[in-house]
Amino acid sequence: MIHYKHLILSVLFLFSGFTFAQETKQEEREPGHLNKNKFRQLYQEFSTPNQYRTASGAPGHEYYQQKADYKINLELDDKQQKMFGQETITYTNNSPDDLEYLWLQLDQNVRAKDSKSPLRNGGGVPSADQPGAFVGKHFNAPFEGGFNIEYVKDANGKGLKYVINQTMMRIDIPKPLKAGEKISFSVKWWYNINDHVNQRGRSGYEYFEKDDNYAYVIAQFFPRMCVYNDVEGWQNFQFWGNGEFALVFGDYDVNITVPADHIVDGTGELQNRKEVFSKTMMNRYNQARKSFDKPVMIVTQAEAEANEKSRSSEKKTWKFSAKNVRDFGFTSSRKYIWDMQAVKFGERTVMAVSLYPKEGNPLWEEYSTKAVVSTLKSYSDKTFDYPYPKAISVHAKNQGMEYPMICWNYGRPNEDGTYSDRTKYGMISVIIHEVGHNFFPMIVNSDERQWGWMDEGLDTFMQYIAEQEFGEWFPEAIAPNKKYPSRRGEPAKIVRYMKGDQSFITPIMANPENVYQLGNNAYGKPATALNILRETVMGKELFDHAFKTYSKRWMFKHPSPEDFFRTMEDASGVDLDWYWRGWFYSTDYVDIGVKGVKKFYVSSKPTAKIKKMMEARGMKESDLPPLVYMAEEGSEDYSKKLEKGTALDNSSSLKEYMMDNFTAEERATMPTPKFFYEVEFNKPGGLVMPLIVEYKYIDGTSEKITYPAQVWRKNDNEVKKVIASEKELVSVTVDPDLETADIDVTNNSWPKQEEENKFKNFKNKVKG
Amino acid sequence: MQIVKLKIIVMVLFVSLSSFISLHKYYVSVTDIEYAKETKSLQIISRLFVDDFEKVLQERYIDTLSLDDNSADFYIEKYFSKKLKVTVNNELQQFSFIGKEIDGDMVHCYFEIEKVSNIETINVMNKLLFGTYENQQNITHLKINEKKKSFLFVKDKSSGLLKL
């Protein structure tokens, strides 16, 4: 009997996938190895949870963040393009640590003459330069950029010692700032404003030669507190130019003095509207507060054009106040046309605002505020109701950049007012993207200096959803397109990047200063990864709940990458360590294919393999228990006869079992498969992904089965699946709807499909 | 699936969203030349960055030229006829312009050389954009019958030969 049992075990093993090859002895013993399984948890990569940040991804019970409140007086010198400022910072140390010194960011110093930023890149002569940049580099044009710090004083007016290290300034306070204490100090400074169009920059002026006017978009223009937290200590990584900002929340009171004929808007609520608005503007503003369906002009194009000719020698001070923001930005010019529309969030009215010179029309009056409104609605739906009182879109010639409540966006028509679709969709997309940044990172305040993808990737992912919704809500705005032509988000759009040369690809989890192709690395790939996660891996319901949980947990706080990764798992009950590991920590790509299909019939006779085993063990057929055998088509076990019968006809063991265990009625309702297929899938790509397969049958029907990614957990290279069917299988397609960013689809079909001829298709299209 | 030895370095230029970014910019075009037996023609698709190509055409021809506009087609054809030369069995071939399409940052240009048979040798010279961009690289893939070859053309080496 023992003998018999062994045989049964062997037979069972045979069925569960063991092969004879494993019974032969190995010549050499392989060395052992560490856990290389792609589904192992990210214990090595993640930091250990603690009282500040929990293992569930939420802020811990002792989570803290610092606070920096600013009172700033500014004067803009429009004649010489200089910015003068005096600020008082009140810094609250909510950390449990005593701070011996304070670190501030001096971002303007990236433009100082001794800045190391331009020296950080190697390489030869660039092929082309903007004329301004060229002159700046080679003619040594005397642009005196960077901060001129006049003083740093304590609350009693006594000078404080400070040290400037490039774009960072350390203030050496006389005694440590103890946990829970506050300190106030003042800084006076000025700098020359740069030309952001020709010298490039996120902040600066554009000069309009025709009417001799400047339009200013001003940001990272005042000394700002660095973040101090449990993750980085002081985040004083230099501002080299690519890695953006890490900033502390606080309350701002900012007074901006400009020529009296300038139009100004910025972060926060305007405190002295009656002083700076004309009566007409005031009336229009009151109308706009109630206009929920279309924008109301506060300053019309005709008025703006008249204002362009004015040269007031008077000054006006615009006073803004903002609560719980991480930064402040503003814009100022004589040239601005100004429109506003109201948006309702619960009981609150939020103003969607656009400012643009006539050069932005007719594009801007039509689409800017519309895009702002649409963005606030789309993003709020997936995160939290937009908490600030307004969101402003300002026209800038060739850049898009975000600040709390305000952003600059490109999209300028030709001089005759015509514009291409590329310009139009470029503009709507950049507005959606930059207004969307209010959510990430202005409110969900990740560390941009360290992790570009945490705001850019999440924002670009949301941008895709918001663009598609814009298309659904305003079909006339995107006609004749049926859906909004998004540049990023769809899986197929990232393929070209992911299959590129590995020596120019960096994992997403990298500092933005050190990556190749920042646009793909920090924007396109994480956005696509999240889109695939939402639509294909988790499903919209689970994803959206988890994403919203993350947004709400970290609203007005400083999340780290792990806080995001952990929350997405914690709130959904989906283990995603494998997904983060592959998509975010590696440069692996998706390539899954179907290798082959074998067809089997049920048979009564032991197959050659079984016979060989019986022989080895000295068994006879009568020693075997009742078994159902599978004969592969074309093999020695196969005969044409098998094709005629059903599985029951072909196997007496099976037939007897059915008769013993089921009644005739039961048997009549059970499907009896006739065709059995072993489908082998392979995975040349390193990423594990769900295996999405479409099976097509001879009668024209098809079924789509998604095997979870865990199908690869024991064999990362290939996996077999058995299909039992009453109908003959005619084709197998992996990822039929291109959901996974598979970089090579030529191996995705059985039988192998002829490659689509792009040339022929295009020619047919053109020639009609 | 044959492994193409020369990996394609397509560094996608991006219009920087959310930040101006002056990263090292790559100047790369990709041209596929494939022989279609059934039509006895060489099918050519060239993919160039819209902004680079537009700038070159503006400098050479009309400074307001826009690739979004069909009137650019005339100049595209004119430019290609100077910069891309295909010689089959030592005979320079004339190609006809089929059309172009814009796909994100790239413009795809389609050309066809008809009445080609018995290819023994094919020589390609690809000088697209070399005049303007010092670091321009033109990747060119040839697929003639079952034979494949890829070239990376740079300013100092702008032509290559495939023998069948």
Q: What does the model show?
A:
In chain A, strand 22 and strand 23 form a beta hairpin. The longest helix of chain A is centred in the middle third of the chain and has 22 residues, at 452-473. In chain A, 28% of the residues lie in helices and 25% in strands. In chain A, helix 7 crosses helix 9 (452-473), helix 12 packs across helix 13 (540-553) and helix 13 (540-553) crosses helix 14 (561-570). Chain A is of the alpha+beta class and 768 residues long. Chain A folds into 3 domains: 35-59 and 451-588, no CATH class; 67-121 and 130-450, Immunoglobulin-like (Sandwich), CATH 2.60.40.1730; 591-768, no CATH class. With 164 residues, chain B is mainly beta. Chain B has one domain. Chain B has helices spanning 50-60, 73-83, and strands at 28-36, 41-49, 84-88, 91-92, 96-103, 106-113, 121-126, 137-144, 147-153, 159-163. In chain B, the strands form 2 sheets. Chain B has a 6-stranded mixed beta sheet with strand order 5-6-2-1-8-9. A 4-stranded antiparallel beta sheet of chain B has the order 4-3-7-10. Chains A and B meet through helix 7, helix 9, helix 12 and helix 21 of A and strand 5 and strand 6 of B.
Key traits:
heterodimer, A: 768 residues, alpha+beta, Immunoglobulin-like, seven-stranded mixed beta sheet, six-stranded mixed beta sheet, 21 helices, 31 strands, elongated, B: 164 residues, mainly beta, 2 helices, globular, disordered N terminus
User: Based on DSSP secondary structure assignment, what is the total number of beta strands of chain A?
Assistant: 31
Q: Helix count of chain A, per DSSP?
A: 21
**Biggest sheet layout of chain B:** 6 strands, mixed
Q: Are there runs of chain B of 5+ residues with pLDDT below 50, and where?
A: 1-24
Show the largest interface. Answer: A-B, 59 and 43 residues
Class inferred from helices and paired strands of chain A: alpha+beta
Largest sheet of chain A: 7 strands, mixed
**What number is the mean pLDDT of chain B?**
81
